[in-house]
Amino acid sequence: MATYTVTKVRKESSTDGTHMHIEGVCTNDGTHYTRKQVVDSINAGNTWKSSADGYEATIEAIAYCPKANCYAKPYIKTKPDSTKKDNLENLDAC
Question: Which of 60, 67, 58, 15 is nearest to 35 (CA)?
Fold first, then answer.
């Protein structure tokens, strides 16, 4: 199995316009992957990690965007309560 290192994130506006959520991620070589591609890869046994500014976290697949009334799926997360770069939401933009 392979390990992928995510260094940046791409966000999009939610359908109702109330927040931005993760559309996909970019790896250290600049390749863009959608949330679904990441989730499918995780489900196939590959490991995905975020890495930036000395922080690292394992990316996990979850059913839906964790924001209230947001049903974007599938979704990915690391440490959603963290304010540091071990939270996918805090990575720089792709």
Answer: 60
CB-count burial class (<10 Å; 0-12, 13-18, 19+) for 22: buried
Residue ranges of the domains in the chain? 3-93
pTM: 0.92
Predicted confidence band of residue 40 (pLDDT cuts 50, 70, 90) = very high
Please tell me whether residue 38 adopts helix, strand or coil conformation.
helix
CA atoms within 13 A on the CB side of 73: 6
H or E segment to which residue 1 belongs: none
Judge whether residue 3 has pLDDT over 90. Answer: yes
Strand 75-77, strand 60-62: pairing: antiparallel
